[in-house]
């Protein structure tokens, strides 16, 4: 089951902000590592933490030498795909690809309906369809072809 969406806004409670920072920083570094390995690309992530009343701190992940990547970045004169906060905040117009999608996730119309409510009544053959089994599978309630065959065979007459 998925997690609920959180509203992206500054965290006011210091302890919660610190814990969130550490977890998300580690997750970002792990994703950067995976991107570099899986796609054979050079990746660099640089984070400056500047909290009032604390020392400034630099965090960095780099798949190769950081100076090499920063130097290549400064001297690069080709095509760029640059993004900023406005690209993710929802304030900017959505970037729509050729198929009309604005992201890589499933559209609402592609999501199966919620699982059927359990009742004491028996299932009739009118209740069973391929969509029914896809819904069960989507919610982890259907674990094999055998169950589908048994149900379908039971309705043949």
From TrEMBL:
It is found in: Nucleus. The keyword Nucleotide-binding does not apply. InterPro entries: TF_MADSbox, TF_MADSbox_sf. GO terms for cellular component: nucleus. Residues 1-51 form the MADS-box domain. Transmembrane segments: none annotated. Keywords: DNA-binding, Nucleus, Transcription, Transcription regulation. GO terms for molecular function: DNA-binding transcription factor activity, RNA polymerase II-specific; protein dimerization activity; RNA polymerase II cis-regulatory region sequence-specific DNA binding. One of its GO terms (biological process) is positive regulation of transcription by RNA polymerase II. SUPFAM superfamilies: SRF-like. Residues 98-111 have a biased composition (Acidic residues). Residues 77-123 are annotated as: Disordered. It comes from the Eukaryota. This is MADS-box domain-containing protein. It comes from Mycena albidolilacea.
